[in-house]
Design a protein that fits this description.
Chain lengths: 165, 141
């Protein structure tokens, strides 16, 4: 996996979390993972197809989801509630949207599918060609996990992305 | 939290009326909260472009805050159809996907502005003030 694909997602996550949660978001751990993804709490997955292929999982621990949804939507929100899931979907949507905007400006073209609920305890095994980068962000509301598995699609030239119109 | 001078309609001194069109409940709540901070009133919500068109016809809001990627009908097409029926419609696109093609197409189809998510309250306030122009004024709270 190439760092130039990952960096926009890190930057976007940082910016979106800082704006939405009104506080700093710091990366506290980064690791590569080739095993099946294990969900931590309320998770959403976003698939990307085009010059770049793969998926991003945005995963909030239950207490973090409760705090974030409560702060943003108002009131006490149960982590299993639809409001908590909607909050995580929209955060994922904003992070991926901001990241693909940066990648699009570099000439990459792709389609982003709407966030989907990731409810299985385990799933999304990676392989040697597309191992996942797992990052943990510490925010004022708790831990947010980002699992990114992206790669250039076959036939796409790394050195000559299409130019914007 | 930053304080905003409430925006009112110049013609009758009433709060500016908004329609929020977004498939995310969370996004609609978030925008509703911001509109409240600006002294405005969300008079209707819709979760897709097609419902947004229906609600626009029914409610005739002063401003529409419209997402781009939605099921059934996307926001840019909905904006185009609303403006075809009401060229005076004031539509602000609010989307996380803010790349140039999206922004250009939305503006070409008649949207007045494009705000990338997450919307910053102070930016959204300025954009709304700008699109309302002389039809709105600020009133000290």
């Amino acid at each position: 996996m190439k760092i130039e694909l990952i960096q926009p997602f890190i930057n976007a996550t940082d910016a979106v979390l800082a704006e939405m949660l009104q506080g700093p978001a710091q990366v506290t751990s980064v690791s590569m993972e080739e095993e099946v993804y294990r969900r931590r709490g309320v998770a959403a997955s976003v698939a990307i197809h085009g010059d770049i292929e793969g998926r991003i999982i945005f995963d909030l621990e239950p207490e973090t989801a409760r705090r974030v949804a409560g702060a943003l939507a108002g009131g006490d929100v149960d982590p299993t509630d639809q409001v908590a899931r909607e909050t995580v979907y929209e955060l994922a949507n904003m992070v991926v949207g901001n990241a693909v905007t940066l990648l699009n400006d570099q000439g990459f073209r792709f389609k982003v599918l709407p966030p989907e609920s990731h409810t299985a305890e385990k799933g999304y095994a990676t392989n040697c060609e597309s191992e996942a980068l797992v990052m943990c962000f510490e925010t004022p509301s708790g831990k947010v996990h980002l699992n990114i598995a992206l790669d250039y699609s076959r036939g796409h030239s790394v050195f000559a992305p299409r130019q914007s119109a | 939290m930053q304080g905003f001078e409430p925006l009112v309609r110049r013609k009758d001194g009433q709060p500016v009326r908004f329609l929020v069109v977004d498939d995310s409940i969370f996004a609609r709540k978030n925008l509703q909260r911001m509109v409240g901070m600006f002294g405005g009133q969300v008079v209707g919500e819709a979760a897709d472009g097609r419902a947004g068109i229906t609600e626009y016809s029914r409610l005739q809001p002063d401003v529409v805050l419209m997402d781009v990627t939605m099921p059934d009908m996307e926001g840019i097409e909905a904006a185009e159809r609303i403006i075809a029926h009401d060229p005076q419609a004031r539509i602000v696109m609010v989307s996380s996907v803010g790349y140039q093609e999206n922004v250009s197409e939305a503006l070409r189809k008649g949207a007045l502005h494009f705000v990338q998510k997450p919307p910053k309250p102070e930016l959204l306030y300025d954009v709304i003030k700008r699109v309302l122009g002389d039809d709105a004024s600020t009133q000290q709270s």
